[in-house]
Structure formats: structure tokens, C-alpha cells
Design goal:
Elements: H1 10-24, H2 28-44, E1 45-47, E2 54-56, E3 62-65, H3 66-78, E4 101-104, H4 106-119
Antiparallel strand pairs: 1-2, 3-4
Amino acid sequence: MGCKGFRLDDNIMIAREIRLKHEADRPYKEVLEERNAIKKERLNSVHCALCRLPYKSFEVNYVLPFKLLMMFKNHTYVSGRHDTLNLAHLKVTAPEFLSHGARLCEICYMLIIEEYKLVE
């Protein structure tokens, strides 16, 4: 994996304990319905390729080649803005992947297009 270590966030453990305690006070059927609703919502959501936020499928209707996203990543790195944006998840695993489409939300789409205009 290449992992040298990890750190467990105490807040997550406390939040889980509170949630489990809260679920113990409610009927099992109600808890099960809530879990199924959350699972269904997660399955119906689509993530933006740049910001990785979940959206409804009709909100992520912009498709750009992955090559433009890599151009955006490289240009932000060269211009020194890579510290403000976390773009580590944008990686090319194979050259054929550059021609694939990436689904973006409206804000990320406008950001990529304006950056492309700036590069030109």
C-alpha cells in the first residue's frame, strides 16, 4: 500500500458512539428505514470528478476530457496555486485514460473552462 502510518480521529469515534446510543433508543425498524434511505441516496448520487462532492445525476451534466483536468492540475501547479486546491486525486493510470470523459458540476466546469482560456 505504501502507507507509513495513520492517525485515528477521536471525533469520529465519539460521533459513532453518540449515533449508536441514539439508535439504541429508537425502534429497530425506524433505524433500518433510515439506513436504507441513506444508502439509497448515496447510490443515486454522482460525484464530481474535480471537487468530489455528491450531486444528483442531473446536476453533474458537464462532461470534459480527462486531459483538460490534467492540464488544469499542471497549470495550477506551475502557477503556484496547488496549495489552495487539493488535486492529488487526479492521476493518470494509463495513456488511454486521457481521452475518457469526466463528469463535472457546473462550478468546476466553469473553473476548468476559465483556466483553459487563461492558458491560451
